[in-house]
Amino acid sequence: AVGAVSLSFELDxxxxxxxxxxxxxxxxxxxxxxxxxVIVFSSNPKIRxxxxxxxxxxxxxxxxxxxxxTFLKNHGEHYGFKMDQKVRVxxxxx
Length: 94
What we know:
The chain is of the alpha/beta class. It is built from 4 helices and 4 strands, in the order αβαβαβαβ. The chain has helices spanning about 1-10, 25-30, 45-50, 70-75; strands spanning about 15-20, 35-40, 55-60, 90. It has a 4-stranded parallel sheet, with helices on one face.
């Protein structure tokens, strides 16, 4: 978790994507206060409530939006980004 957040700072990422149901990992990433939005993809409906107080963490269901390009196309404007902008995404694979 620490390495991923450090890498997101080095690469000046706007988003960190992670597919996980691991609440402890999500909490750990959040407590490191990355400047990137942490986008969690989970099929467990309880995850949203469990990480609701975490700083900068947003939960989406697993599916087509897990792809960074599709996510930015469907949700980028909610985060202040347009499709013609360069956006750096760090996708954590577990």
